[in-house]
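Response to reviewer comment R2.3. The reviewers asked that we include at least one raw input/output pair. We reproduce the pair for NAD-dependent epimerase/dehydratase domain-containing protein here without editing.
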Amino acid sequence: MRLLILGGTMFLSRTVARLAVKRGHQVTALARGTHPVPKGVQLVTADREQGADAYRSLLASLADEQTWDAVLDVSRIPNQVESAVTALSTRTKHWAFVSTVSVYADHSTPSGNESDQLLAEWSEDQDPLEHYGEAKVSCEKILREALSPEQLLVARPGLICGPGDPSDRYGYWPARFARDNEPVLAPAVAASAKTQVIDVRDFAAWLLDGMENALAGTYDVVGDEVPMQTLLGAALEASGYRGQIRLAPEEWLLEQGVNYWAGEDSLPLWLPAEAAGMFQRDGSAARRVGLRPRPFDETLKAVLQDERSRGLTRERRAGLSAAKEKALIAELP
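Raw output as returned:
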């Protein structure tokens, strides 16, 4: 298979590229070149912010009747997606797009599926980073208008995690328990509070299978639901932690400026009750066409090993710093 990846140098797209080479496919990555591509991948350097001009050298490299068997796009920027499909749709047989479960308008109800109502489309006056879900809605619409239903695979993953995750969300908890035996601050979540992620390796394998077989349609790509209390217990056990866990009420944490979900001063994977459905998607459609998520504890152990290799005391993009956590625990009633 001749595969074109728009990206190919970061986390998910890099994992797909590496696996595709391992399976014997001919892989080209179009990227800015700020990060290296995996061994065996041909890099075409371009900046997608340049619109149609970004694809000129790529198209010039093709013979007259040559096409790609599949294109993989992970962009969140509607203008990038539009210029890509305009330039490349006549030279590819199949298109896979990585969207997100953030496209759904309501996350309060468990067991949602692909038929749920979507957010309004992104508008030009919105920042596509701040309005991530809306931007992905627009990206999906652009592709559906440009391609036939038989050509397009739309994957809507939940939180993607695994070794090398640059977001630092899922890895926060195993890394925190492994860092030292000082008290750990955790949210006092209900027993019903769930987590739900997809291991990047499982997602990449499913995407590549789909492109190999020209799978079409829209799928939520999520793993098993795991109670947050179970996840924290497994992270504690895997790390060998021997300290004390201090549970803090939701209202108190919010008063102290601790954030849900991700980012600085957050307790990752912690969600408000009204967003609980984000971690309880149905996901059965993707399983019927081959998705096979590995057990969560296997992912957890691999992430812990990766966190140890990257440094348990490194600066993180998500979670509490050691100093912030210590100060909060000192104030905890």
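The chain has two domains: 2-160+198-221, 162-196+225-280+295-331. Residues 210 and 330 are 51 Å apart (CA to CA). Further pairs are available on request from the corresponding author.
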